[in-house]
Amino acid sequence: MKAEETVKKTIEANGLIPAGSTVILALSGGPDSLCLLHMLLGLRERSGFDLHALHVNHMIRGREADEDEVFVEKTCKELGVPVRIIKKDVPAMAKEQGLSEEDAGRRVRYQALFDYKRELEEGGRTVLIALAHNRDDQAETVLMRIIRGTGVHGLGAMEYKRKDGVIRPLLDTSREAVEEYCQRKGLSPRIDRTNGTGEYTRNDIRLRVLPALEECSPRVKDSLVRLAAFAREDDARLRKEAEEILERECVFASGSAVLRTSLINDLSPAVSKRIIALALAELGLSEDLSAERIAAVLSASRSGRGGLTIELPRGFRALISKGKLTLASPGEK
Fold first, then answer.
1. Residues 6+ apart with CB under 8 A from 242
2. Which of these, 55, 208, 188, 69, lies nearest to 143 by C-alpha position?
3. What does CATH list as the number for 250-328?
4. pTM of the full predicted structure?
5. 10-residue averages of pLDDT along the chain (333 residues)
6. What is the CATH number of domain 3-225?
């Protein structure tokens, strides 16, 4: 099946782009995003959605990054696609905040995309953010999370559509099919030289780990993608159960969430941990929360001891007292 047919099938099967919506494409100028740009243009009129693009110049690759920016701006102008260009000194930001350049760049991209999304939503329209992750990226993500240590939720890797409006139309399309599409359509995407080195963790997995695994099992990428699909199914069921219990049993006050320890202790750890994570997310703590901290909260609840306090990221706390687990925002007692 050709790449464009796979993408069309993915969009339709998962209801990714409703008619009348606006799509912001994260456009680097590389093969994946350039491929998706042309595919979305082909579907735009028939499916009835608006298309915008956003490009971030991370200032990591000097002149090459500036040339990427010029390429994206010129391409969008020729195709009649509105584009927003963001320029950010990611190396300086990474050094200042103690982050890797990879992590800092990701934060900058997401911030810029969601800022643009909020602006366009002021007109009352549905706005989606399209990311050009492909099937190979999915396999790499699963493997990277296994290596770093993850649970069922992490094994699910990337979703076709998230609740915050992020969509991934290329997620069923292989890197090989993307490259074939670009060649067949005469496209000349920009190539990021850092993708051909072991400079970043994902590139190490792409260039060294996966090829070694493919020597043992040539279809290892398919196996990893299938594992992610199974994990998402299991995680969705457990999350639904946790959400129902949270809605029924959790008392939210100003800046805090209170649960009975007897409830948390009697449930399976898989559900209890999700309830704790969901309650903290409702209070505003999600991204920086590790599985180890959630496990520590559950362990404290099950200890049977009162007067315990578990310190959580960004000043959040968990308190065990008088048969209650209280999750508190910074400044709450």
1. 271, 274, 275, 278
2. 208
3. 3.30.465.60
4. 0.85
5. 92 94 96 96 89 94 90 95 94 89 90 95 90 96 88 91 95 96 93 60 87 93 96 94 95 92 94 94 84 91 87 91 91 64
6. 3.40.50.620
